[in-house]
Amino acid sequence: MSKPKLLELDIVRALAIVAVLLIHGTATPRVELPLGSRSHTLYFGINNLSYFPVQAFVLLSGLVLFYSYFDNWSVRRIPGFYRKRLQFILIPYLVWSCFYYLYDQWLNPAVNVHFSLQEFARLLPWAEAGYHLYFMALIMQFYALFPLLVTLVKLCRPLARYLWLFGIAVQAAVSIYSQYANAPIPHGDRLFITYFALFCIGGSLGMYYERFIGWLNRNVYWVTAATASVGFAFLLLSLQAQYGTQFKWWEFELLFTLYPVLVTISFVWIGRHWLSNAPRLAGALSSLGAASFGVYFIHPALLGYYTMHAAVAPGGWEYHAALWGGIVLIVIVPWVIVNQLKRVKASWILFGK
């Protein structure tokens, strides 16, 4: 018997995809505006405080997978699990990789559009056909790993209880080795081990979701305060780094993991609160959350075209209007496109399921 859907997670996905769009939409003023100006500081703050969605989506993936599969898992389910992921994750990834391989060439007037199967194939393993597709390489690794991990957790009950701690220990050990052995991990930002703690934390929350919600309801004010404090510390360190201040590697590593965990947990509570107290807002955000996978795939194409054809010199109000107009555009248009196309039965080829 399948468990009830966690409706609040669609709201978390909506807030996370908005953060993705804010990161990409405010990336340009970080470079174009003078360092230290009020406008630069504002956009820098928005951009950096939005640096949680990749980690949030990894955590949510672990949560949903363990919530859905843990209780009734057996090795007999492995073929069906992989078949489902092959259909609804790998195929959309290949389609959009091909699209961006050609689209980015078309967008660049200095490049003649061509298709080389050998060149395209080289881009696929690490999702290099589009700057945003690295998340797909990452999430496919976690899907490949999940059957082994959940089987180990089923066989070793203490591991189920301390999965979150196991994930933190493994990720910390790899990070420490990488730093002190002076051996940076190749493709580290696209490798599952870089985010392993988040996936395992999500898995722990998924296995004990009702217990987690009870704890969250009792401690929501402490969680909110911790989220704000860690977010402020992360922003402060990032601002200081802009001016050349040196920090230890583990300070950013810690904040870069802790901040997204706290934000995601806070959003779970907010999602549940809005479902009960603001149903219209919750309904709109749930719609965006359900479309978030498609919005993620579509928005860079729209943003790239818009940026090229609506470029405004920095400084005046027109610059800010054009920038925020682009952000609104990449929220609304992909959302509408996905909602319309999802009525078509074969839309899973583009947007998964």
Main beta-sheet annotation: none
Question: Over the alpha carbons, how many angstroms does the gyration radius reach?
Answer: 21 Å
What oligomeric assembly is this protein in? single chain
Number of strands: 0
Q: Helicity, in percent?
A: over 70%
Count of distinct structural domains: 1
Shape: globular
Q: Structural class, from secondary structure content?
A: mainly alpha
Mean pLDDT equals 93
Q: From N to C, what is the helix and strand string? A: HHHHHHHHHHHHHHHH
Strand content: under 5%
Pfam family, one: Acyl_transf_3
Organism: Paenibacillus hemerocallicola
Main location: membrane
Family: Belongs to the acyltransferase 3 family.
Which helices and strands occur, and which strands form pairs?
Blueprint: H1 8-25, H2 27-32, H3 38-49, H4 53-69, H5 78-107, H6 117-123, H7 134-155, H8 157-161, H9 163-180, H10 196-207, H11 209-242, H12 249-277, H13 279-290, H14 292-309, H15 317-341, H16 348-351
Helix pairs in contact: 1-4, 1-12, 1-13, 1-14, 1-15, 3-11, 4-7, 4-10, 4-12, 5-7, 5-14, 9-10, 11-12, 12-13, 14-15
Give a nutshell description of this structure.
The protein starts with 7 loop residues before the first helix and ends with a helix.
Structure characterization notes:
- The chain is an all-alpha fold.
- It has one domain.
- The two termini are 20 Å apart.
- One of its GO terms (molecular function) is O-acetyltransferase activity.
- InterPro entries: Acyl_transf_3_dom (IPR002656).
- It is found in: Cell membrane.
- This is Acyltransferase.
- Pfam families: Acyl_transf_3 (PF01757).
